[in-house]
Design goal:
31% helix, five-stranded parallel β-sheet, Rossmann fold, globular, D-amino Acid Aminotransferase, Chain A, domain 1, nine-stranded antiparallel β-sheet, Dna Ligase, domain 1, 12 helices, 3 domains, 20 strands, alpha+beta
Length: 389
């Protein structure tokens, strides 16, 4: 049983961490936000901020040991994950577990777990440790193929390759955008899917599992652009997705919310990826559900009850992106963006812009998916970014 007020330490302080911090503070928790740079979004609302090199084990161990938080919640992939296991040995709770964080940080480990150990249906794939290996691995999969670093986030370094002539460029892009020290890529068949979904899966302390209504989403260059809830699935598809999500999250263990991604190809449900934390496509739950994914995460982490998850008839999100580099960012157009009922705009407070960086998101509810998506799209388009060098 958690004693309140609890101290929650976030390892990573982006826009998702910011919403986790807000949800924690609403439950009376003290929040310590950590990241590699000052002024990160979660730091703007936290009780205390710590800036440190997140991939350095000594620095990570030092900051956790100094504060001795009730729970440590990793929010990013670029972490010294080996240090998390050491913290668990010292009696510090890591969410969901140190092992789960380590396994899901690397695409090769989670793919091997899902495909080989748990025998879940995945896309056909192979690994490559050099450009030459990539040429040898890609050909048997057929064209096009998808090339990704085994360690990255938000689609960075991902390429869709249509012929052998573009493989060297894909290798260079993957290496330039990889995180950590790995020089390996995963290459997989390109699936002509009907829909891509996220199934938010909540593991509670009593061992039970809850699911949110599925979230559909669209990506560009591996990064989400819009999402909607609920996505329309057949009962059979939903049962398959829930069974697969429960299988992999039970193996990973621990408590909290997981974002489990699937491709839907006809009647087939194909496991894609998993994040052991709130998911970017789940930002839509801030307007669609009675309890957002962030509130659900905190309730599961702190051992609090989740009596019911209710969802709106239709809700949607659209990201607000920067189109160029700059260190000073301001916004206009909010009057128009918020002019329709049942719309919200979240601006993340990121001080630095770069092409494609997510700076905010528009959210909307509607009578049906097209209505909600049109309102979210209008709100996002109405927001204008002024970016100065």
């Amino acid at each position: 049983m958690t004693t309140f007020p609890a101290t929650v330490m976030l390892l990573g302080s982006g826009e998702l961490g910011k919403e986790v911090a807000i949800a924690a503070q609403r439950l009376g928790c003290r929040v310590i936000a950590c990241d590699r740079y000052a002024g990160a979004p979660a730091m703007q609302v936290a009780d205390l901020a710590e800036v440190l090199p997140m991939t350095k084990p000594e620095a990570l161990l030092d900051v956790v040991r100094r504060h001795r938080p009730s729970v440590v919640i990793p929010e990013i992939e670029a972490l010294a994950v080996n240090a998390l296991a050491e913290l668990e040995d010292e009696g510090i709770t890591v969410i969901p577990t140190a092992r789960a964080t380590a396994v899901t940080m690397n695409r090769d480990r989670i793919r091997d777990l899902a495909s080989a150990e748990l025998e879940l249906r995945t896309a056909r794939f192979a690994y490559a440790s050099s450009a030459e290996d990539l040429h040898n691995a890609a050909e048997p999969l057929g064209w096009p193929v998808v090339v990704k670093p085994v360690m990255s986030s938000s689609g960075k370094g991902q390429s869709v390759v249509k012929s052998t002539e573009d493989l060297d460029q894909a290798w260079e892009a993957a290496m330039a955008n990889a995180r950590g020290t790995s020089n390996q890529v995963i290459v997989e068949e390109f699936l002509h899917f009907d829909q891509e979904i996220t199934l938010l899966t909540i593991r509670q302390r009593d061992g039970s599992t809850l699911f949110c209504p599925p979230i559909g989403h669209e990506q560009a260059n591996g990064d989400y652009q819009c999402s909607w809830q609920p996505a329309q699935l057949s009962e059979e598809q939903l049962h398959k997705a829930q069974t697969m999500a429960r299988t992999v999250t039970d193996n990973l263990g621990g408590v909290g919310l997981f974002g489990v991604e699937f491709f839907l190809c006809g009647d087939e449900v194909i496991f894609s990826e998993l994040s052991p934390r709130p998911h970017d496509t789940g930002l839509v739950t801030l307007i669609s559900q009675n309890l957002s994914e962030f509130e659900l995460h905190l309730r599961a982490v702190l051992g609090l009850p989740i009596p019911m998850i209710r969802c709106a008839t239709a809700a949607a999100s659209r990201v607000i992106l920067a189109d160029r580099h700059g260190s000073r960012v301001s916004f206009s157009g909010l009057e128009s963006a918020l002019s329709e009922p049942d719309t919200q705009v979240l601006l993340f407070g990121k001080e630095e812009a770069r092409p494609g960086r997510r700076m905010g998101v528009a959210l909307a509810c509607g009578d049906h998916r097209a209505d909600a998506q049109a309102k979210a799209d209008h709100s996002a388009a109405a927001v204008t970014l002024q970016i100065e060098a």
